[in-house]
Amino acid sequence: MKILISWYAKNNDFDKDKEVKLDGPTMAFHDYFFENYDEHILLTTRDANDGDPFLDKLVRVIAKKYKERKVNKRYMNIADVIDFQEIKTKVETFLLEYANDEIDIFFSPGTSSMQLSWFVCHQSLGLKTRLFQTREGKFSGKKAPDLLELTIDQSSVPMSAIISEQIQQKDTFSTDYLVSESIKPIYEKARLIAQTDKVTCLIRGESGTGKEHLAQYIHKVSNRCTKAFVSVNCSALGDSILESRLFGYVKGAFTDAKEDKKGLFDEANGGTIFLDEIGDISAFMQQSLLRVLQSSEILPLGATKVRKVDVRIVAATHKDLEAMCEAGTFRWDLYYRLSVVELSLPMLQERGITEKRNFIDFFLEKIQKEMKKPKRLKLSNEVYQKLIDYPFKGNVRELENVMTNLYVFCDKEVQLQDLPRKILHKSGNNRSSFSLKETEKDLIIKALTFYKGNQAKACEAIGYRSINTFKSKIKEYEIEIG
Ligand SMILES: Nc1ncnc2c1ncn2[C@@H]1O[C@H](COP(=O)(O)OP(=O)(O)OP(=O)(O)O)[C@@H](O)[C@H]1O
Q1: Sorting pLDDT into bands at 50, 70 and 90, what band is 428?
Q2: Distance CA 318, CA 276 (A)
Q3: 278: CA distance to ligand 1 center in Å?
Q4: Is 178 in the pocket of ligand 1 (CB under 6 A)?
């Protein structure tokens, strides 16, 4: 099948009266270039439940003019039309449905993020995609527009957009990473794991807690450190693509397999492979990985003979794998093989106020250097307090993003109004029931944060009669002093 895919362009495909422009980009494409296609899929950012009257109208007009043409609508459910990550993820998943077809993409309509997504997918998915744009006739002195193919060579590292495969040699304890008090013991354990060659390790932790960095650390302090560290994000990929990327394929394994291709296990040979989001792999991939873990053998797609590899596997997940095993969606035998040893990273919220404050200060310094800002950004006490209160469900990554944001938008001392709305209007306290003790504890924490750990000032501000009462409360509530 030969398919044309495009977003429709609200501004250019419709006139000011919201009627379809007969010389708009979509109609022009049909008038001059559509003939050889089997189907046109027109995309909208809207959700199917809400519908899209503009798209309906455009499809009706095309159908009226070209009765024999197959034009289908696709609701992509995109919340933010300039959120590149969201658009790319949805577009990738969508394109993979057409992995066996010839896909021509009409590149012009859409926001810059939409265009960039097409570009990245074309480069990285390894599908039969071509990108086209049109030039209106008036610009080339002709009546008819021109159809121009954007010729960009596809990447020699396919799938890099979805499977973030990185072969990196980062400094282990470089100054751009904070091994804070609560994770020091975890890093100590990791060092012991690293020194026991080949033992498989499962890292647990919510997104953004630093699982990948920990996996890199295991690699760096092991005797495999001179070989590759390969990181693979296993989620969002169909079996056959993940299988061919992990294990490689032989010439002729499928139509486009023109020559043998090594997989990521081969690239990691002698080194370490980090399988992120392991809880997301299918039953089929679980079976394939089990074979690697049991016998250190891989079977490339289309091959008849297995090949030995020497790779340490470090896997990570935020999912409850035991519960998945109980529910029958994850194999017990694979689980036991993966979790020979386990490390668990705490959420940022569980790390206490002192540590959270350290993270804020750490990022103030790190980002200043990265952005080459002349001065370190100052935060008012209220801002510190708000940041410490905020639960940061996205963990260290989210805090880092917020701090980056502040560096981008502020050049003076950061005030409350400079904070993102979500932080400004959210209290970190998510309890559903009211408790006097918890409220008192919160108050003490807030006062201590505000007065940067000065107990006398915090005590006076709250109104305790004596500093001894205040100190005994700190002890009772096990509050850490920064
Ligand atoms: N202790 C830390 N010091 C400095 N930066 C950190 C720390 N922990 C996490 N980060 C930063 O947070 C971001 C997320 O870290 P990382 O990718 O290692 O987390 P993850 O748990 O693997 O996330 P995910 O599961 O979403 O892939 C990175 O930018 C990382 O540099």
Answers
A1: very low
A2: 9
A3: 17
A4: yes
234 & 186 share domain: yes
Q: Which of 170, 183, 213 to mutate to test the pocket of ligand 1 (most atoms within 8 A of CB)?
A: 213
3-state secondary structure 462-481: HCCCCHHHHHHHHHHCCCCC
Q: Which of 89, 209, 229, 233 is the best mutation target for the ligand 1 pocket, counting ligand atoms within 8 Å of the beta carbon and taking the most?
A: 209
pLDDT, position 309: 94
Domain endpoint, select from 309, 325, 344: 344
Residues 310 and 275 in one domain: yes
* Rounded distance between C-alpha atoms, residue 318 and residue 314, angstroms: 14
Q: How many domains would you assign to the chain?
A: 4
Q: Read off the pLDDT of residues 81-105 as tens digits, 9 standing for 90 and up.
A: 888 878 887 898 788 788 788 999 9
pLDDT digits (tens, 9 = 90+) for 249-296: 999 888 778 889 899 999 999 999 999 999 999 998 999 999 999 999
Q: Is 5 helix (H, G, I), strand (E, B) or coil?
A: strand
User: Domain range spanning residue 400?
Assistant: 348-424
Domain at 411, CATH number: 1.10.8.60
Q: Which residue owns the Cα nearest ligand 1 atom 4? A: 177
Q: Computed from CA positions of residues 433, 439, 442, 446, in that sequence, does the dihedral angle turn out positive or negative?
A: positive
Q: How far is CA 344 from CA 189, 217, 355, 404, in A?
A: 11, 14, 17, 27
Same domain? 324 vs 254: yes
Q: How many Å apart are CA 25 and CA 34, to the nearest integer? A: 12
Assess whether the C-beta atom of 401 lies below 6 angstroms from ligand 1. no
Alpha helices, DSSP H only, in 14-98?
25-33, 53-65, 84-96
Contact 88, 123 (CB under 8 A): no
Q: Which residues of 155-183 are buried (b: 16+ CB within 10 A; e: fewer)?
A: eeebbbbbbebbeeeeebeeeebbbbeeb
Higher local confidence (pLDDT), 430 or 345: 345
117 and 193 both lie in a single domain: no
355 ligand 1 Cβ < 6 A: no
**Cα–Cα distance for residue pair 150/121, rounded to 1 Å:** 14
For residue 130, give the nearest of 119, 143, 114, 140 by alpha carbon. 119
ipTM of this complex? 0.97
